[in-house]
Amino acid sequence: MNIGIVCPYSWGVPGGVQFHIRDFSEELMARGHTVSVLAPGGEDDDVPPYVVKAGRPVSIPYNGSVARVLFGPRAAARVRRWLSDGKFDLVHIHEPETLSLGLLATWLADVPAVATFHQGSKRSRVLSAGHGILQSTLEKLSARIAVSDEARRTIVQHLGGDAVLIPNGLYVDRFTAPPRPEWQGAGGTFSFLGRVDEPRKGLPVLLGAWPAIHTAHPDARLLVAGPGDVDEARRSIPAEHRDAVTFLGAISDDDKAAMLASSDVYIAPHTGGESFGIVIVEAMAAGAPVVASDLVAFRAVLDDGRLGALVPIGDSESLATEAIALLGDPQRRQRYRDAASVAVRRYDWSEIATEVLAVYEMVMAAGSPADGPRFRLPGR
């Protein structure tokens, strides 16, 4: 099958959606399919050979973060050319509700189109305000996929219709890495992964808990991995607890696996804006017991606390109490590891890609809504 995949966010500033598209594309190609990915990207962005750069993105606030997207007449022309040159059997559009390439591709595609929705939001002024336009646009889709119950609920609430639930994937065995002695504390190792200056990732909550954790376990250390300006975060740590915190910066996939394998407890203190929680699944795959904020998405991944500990959102004191208790209870940590090692197999790309391909086969057999009257770009 010849498949076109549309990424809404800049390939040069990777995030969860980009990693999902990257790994899924490589899984499809390993199975003999042809794949082309269209993504925002500037001339200096390094991309793999199957990615086509559509132009330099612009940055806009979105879902508690900053989205680097691409829209407008010039972008539309590039989408149209990519679709024409690609001669795809099917296009797979990620985040078609976002003002970026995915929305343009949904308007312009004249082959069957499948969409994956990644975001979950209780309230969305943008989706509510654009409900009519989006609803008529998304009628062009042949199938919808949601990566979580939260993302599915957002579709039902804001866009109408429904979606099949297929979660994010990962290559589980790639997280089987040896721990690195230089990253292990004599009294245990905690870790965190996320952009350090993005508030919704919750690092301030964790650093607020760190003095109590470090006092209870004075030989423990904390590894903080992720891009962003660390100066403010470092200054927020009391001097007597600062040397036990190591900021690793942006790390490679191999280093991420090694950091998680070196961890006695992985902490996910996020405060919102998460519809799935792939980082928790990655920690589980690496054998790191998890303490996570009690977000709906995280509770689902951790099976209501069976696979890891849950704490109140934004509560540094409760986080400290739970982290201290879990590090001091090796038997409970082993129970979490044992249960997670089984559960995490459900997310392996060998399973997830097969489920998505089943959607593709259903869509190809049924034909495309685009066989009817073609939706035109506004003003054209």
Structure description:
40% of the residues lie in helices and 17% in strands. It is an alpha/beta fold and 380 residues long. The chain has 2 domains: 2-169 and 348-371, Rossmann fold (3-Layer(aba) Sandwich), CATH 3.40.50.2000; 172-346, Glycogen Phosphorylase B (Rossmann fold), CATH 3.40.50. The strands form 3 sheets. A 7-stranded parallel sheet has the order 3-2-1-6-7-8-9, sandwiched between helices. Strand 8 (143-146), helix 6 and strand 9 form a beta-alpha-beta unit. The radius of gyration is 21 Å and the shape is elongated. Mean pLDDT is 91; it is low at 370-380.
- Cα-based radius of gyration, to the nearest Å: 21 Å
Biggest sheet details: 7 strands, parallel
Side by side, the strands of the main sheet go 3-2-1-6-7-8-9
Gross morphology: elongated
Low-confidence stretches: 370-380
User: What would the average pLDDT be, to the nearest integer?
Assistant: 91
Beta-strand content estimate: 15-25%
How many E-type strands? Answer: 15
Helix content: 40-55%
Mind telling me the CATH class of the largest domain? Alpha Beta
Care to give the gist of this entry?
By secondary structure, the protein is an alpha/beta fold. Helices cover 40% and strands 17% of the residues.
Features:
380 residues, alpha/beta, single chain, 17% strand, 15 strands, six-stranded parallel sheet, 2 domains, seven-stranded parallel sheet, Rossmann fold
What topology does this entry show?
Layout: E1 2-6, H1 16-30, E2 34-39, E3 51-53, E4 58-62, E5 65-69, H2 73-86, E6 90-94, H3 101-108, E7 113-117, H4 125-129, H5 131-138, E8 143-146, H6 149-159, E9 164-165, E10 189-193, H7 203-216, E11 221-225, H8 231-235, H9 239-242, E12 245-249, H10 253-261, E13 265-268, H11 278-286, E14 290-293, H12 296-301, E15 309-311, H13 316-327, H14 330-343, H15 349-366
Parallel strand pairs: 1-2, 1-6, 2-3, 6-7, 7-8, 8-9, 10-11, 10-13, 11-12, 13-14, 14-15
Antiparallel strand pairs: 4-5
Helix pairs in contact: 2-3, 7-13
